Amino acid sequence: MFSRVALLMLTLLLGLSQNAWAQPEVDWVHVDKSIRKMYLKSGDEVVKEYRIALGSKPKGHKRKEGDQRTPEGWYTLDYKKEDSYYYRSFHIDYPNAKDRRIAKALGVSPGGRVMIHGQKPIEAGFSPLAQNFDWTNGCIAVTNDEMDEVMSLVKEGTPIFIEW
């Protein structure tokens, strides 16, 4: 009888301790381009923080294809891509209707394929160094280990807010 009670108590204790260590669910992503940071957030609480690399002209909203900028505003992380040119990626649903209207008025293509992604697998050894430079074409880059974490913590359909 004692062993059953002890086993039940141990099971309850372990179950409670696992819940105490569980991370809050990520319900949105915040990118601050001005300080090269990306935050996975649950409400106002920061769940995870990452140093990011951007395109070579990071200040300002993306207006056209090839401008080396990352869009600003509210978007959605709409799908994950495992067979990415870079190590795994998460697609940002740029351009939205407003972006397309602006590009059309300017007579340019808005571009697309803006992602959060890791680095080329062959260059993974340079990950920490690469994060000190803006080297993407307008995407948001993290290290490959961080990309694994992002892919496991963030669900498709999660909103992302990008600002300068």
TrEMBL record:
Keywords: Cell shape, Cell wall biogenesis/degradation, Peptidoglycan synthesis, Signal, Transferase. The keyword Protein biosynthesis does not apply. CDD domains: YkuD_like (cd16913). Residues 27-163 form the L,D-TPase catalytic domain. The keyword Cell wall biogenesis/degradation applies. GO terms for biological process: cell wall organization; peptidoglycan biosynthetic process; regulation of cell shape. Pathway: Cell wall biogenesis; peptidoglycan biosynthesis. Residues 1-22 form the signal peptide. Pfam families: YkuD (PF03734). Gene3D superfamilies: L,D-transpeptidase catalytic domain-like. The active site is at H117 (proton donor/acceptor), C139 (nucleophile). This is L,D-TPase catalytic domain-containing protein. It comes from Paraferrimonas sedimenticola. The lineage of its organism: Bacteria, Pseudomonadati, Pseudomonadota, Gammaproteobacteria, Alteromonadales.
